Amino acid sequence: MASHLLRKPAQAQEGDVTIIHNLLPRDTRLEYVGFKMIDLKPGGRYEETLQDQECCIVALTGKISVTEGEQTFKEIGTRESVFEKKPTDSVFVSGGKLFGIEAVTSATVALCYAPFLEPLPTRWIKAGDVGVEQRGKYQNKRMVHNILPDSDPTASSLLVVEVYTEGGNFSSYPPHKHDQDRLPDESFLEETYYHEMDPGSGFVFQRVYTDDRRLDETMAVEHRDVVLVPAGYHPVGVPDGYTSYYLNVMAGPKRIWKFHNDPDHEWILERQ
Ligand SMILES: O=C(O)C[C@@H](O)[C@H](O)C(=O)CO
């Protein structure tokens, strides 16, 4: 039986928009993180009024124009495939505001939601301002695009990153968790993983487990699946020959990413 943490892509049509994922708290039982993935044809429009959530609109692929109030961010988005491995543009919109998206070309857009704690200005997060980070060594190498890290005060609770992992490597590894509000040692953050693979016929493995193993799910994750991480360690392993991409959305009561490594596996960081 498929894990309740693994969500498959769907094809629901709403006007011009194909909804691939629509992960609302009532379906996921996540308290903080919401996630929507939409595909738009050229000229296709999507509109939403935010209430008690803020949103980061990530132009995953294709070109889009995003409007909020008097502002329009025209023809943003930098890539036709996430596997061009270059940062893209995003727009942050605070709670209580209405935004519109119009697709200039065929586009895929991620809508990343978290609770709105204070009103903040709408901001275009330019591709050129996204920090690119190489992490790890040996078979633990990955590249991270920091779209909305905790060091950037654009959002009130939302955190968003993209991660690339080449075949034969593990990421989100050594396994780490952030499910206890016990700062300064660890923060409580829920997380979602939206996965893509190149080639798209690939799969990766993701395990989500807690110390007591009351939660212990190992999933074969395919192209465009989402994995929910309500708690626990959540490493990803990528088979040889395939490249993995994932988009992480994180949120919790405090906007700090402070993780705790699984003590059983932390030693891998100490290798010379
Ligand atoms: O460094 C990585 O491998 C990526 C992870 O940190 C990922 O963004 C995550 O698990 C965040 O908690």
TrEMBL record:
Swiss-Prot/TrEMBL catalytic activity: 5-deoxy-D-glucuronate = 5-dehydro-2-deoxy-D-gluconate
Keyword Isomerase included in the entry's annotation: yes
InterPro entries xref list: Deoxy-glucuronate_isom_IolB, IolB_Bacilli, KduI/IolB_isomerase, RmlC-like_jellyroll, RmlC_Cupin_sf
Molecular functions (GO terms): 5-deoxy-D-glucuronate isomerase activity
Pathway the protein takes part in: Polyol metabolism; myo-inositol degradation into acetyl-CoA; acetyl-CoA from myo-inositol: step 4/7
Function: Involved in the isomerization of 5-deoxy-glucuronate (5DG) to 5-dehydro-2-deoxy-D-gluconate (DKG or 2-deoxy-5-keto-D-gluconate).
The family this protein is said to belong to: Belongs to the isomerase IolB family.
Protein name: 5-deoxy-glucuronate isomerase
Species for this entry: Paenibacillus terreus
